[in-house]
Write a structure and sequence with these properties.
This protein is mostly helical. It has 2 domains: 159 residues, no CATH class; 156 residues, no CATH class. It is built from 21 helices and no strands. InterPro entries: DUF445.
Amino acid sequence: MERMERTETGDRGDVGQPARTGAFTNRAMNTFSPADEEKRRGVRQMKLTATGLLLFVALVYVLAKWASHQGAGPWAGYVAAAAEAGMVGALADWFAVTALFRHPLGLPIPHTAIIPTKKDQLGVSLGEFVGENFLSEAVVRQRLRAVGIGSRLGAWLAVPEHADRVTAELSAALRGALTVLRDSDVQAVVGEAITRRADAQEIAPGMGKMLERIVADGGHKRAVDVIVTRGHDWLVLHSDTVMDAVHGGAPGWTPRFVDRKVGERVYKELLRFVTEMRDMPSHPARGALDRFLTDFASDLQSDTDTRARVERLKTEILGRGEVQDLIASAWTAVRSMIVSAAEDERSELRLRLRASLLSLGARMSLDPKLQGKVDGWLESAAVYVVTTYRKEITSLITDTVASWDAEHTTKKIEANIGRDLQFIRINGTVVGSLAGLLIYTVSRALGA
């Protein structure tokens, strides 16, 4: 019996020592926590109780047999039968419980030491069980639908404190993401994206349609008004500049007074033209400009040569280093603006985000249709994850179990469930004794 107990409890000299593992080590399974040690002490106590009960019924059996031989009466036979059956039940259950964790009495009996020898197979079976019963589409949808995430999330977001918390977390995440990103990488990506998009799309037809709408709405007339007004004011202030320009372009053989007269005449005519164009909405030059813009808008949309010239001009402009530098520098300005807005609790960005979260939460908590949409999105996302990565998830279980040290894992499992298993031994002793007593009684009654 002492040998049986040593075999059952194992060598306790290595308690708390890390077990050797393969390439992977799971510290949780290869170390004993104080709670595990407490459980192991409880298991040892229950083993002593079960073994003590076995020794007790063995002693009762010996005494009952001795009393029977001494002529103590029929009762001794009943007690001996009950004790004998109790010993058989206790030994059978001891064998069954011990066989889960090790070879009984150290003998390599087939189908014993199930946990250490079948650990990897148990891990595979556990992974398959989880995959089939917990990671199926029907189970995921049913569980998520029963939770009602949409309504709960809406009610949670509708609380101002929660909306503030989400706003702060999102702002911090945004700041972190923008800080981690290298400006040169983002600038290169933005520049390439804008250039590629511009190269792939012809801009002339769009420009033509836009110009056509502007002319039809008379939007260009305000621009003409500004130009001629500014031109008139400039001519009034810079008359000498205009006349000097005319003098400079005159032939050298003409008399200076003639050049001066010509310059004055040109200036007066130019000033008159600009003044009339400014003051006369129906000026012929305005009408000519309207016709030119209308024809140009039409050519942009339908004339092949005009469209080709615009595309060449677009390519030349995009290829200039100044334009690429401008595109790249735009990211720096945008990033700085976003980071500053994310850091400022009173910025328009954070205020609008908070208001949007509160509005979304209020709608989600009250609108069944929106709740259904949110639940549907979450269900579809979860189903996609579990169906796409089911093998990876189950392999995590399988690989983790495979990485555990067999001996240490056996001891840890025994520490957690061994106390309940010892009750099986106790119950086997009690039930065996009652069954033996019943069988002996029935046999005696039939024999009588």
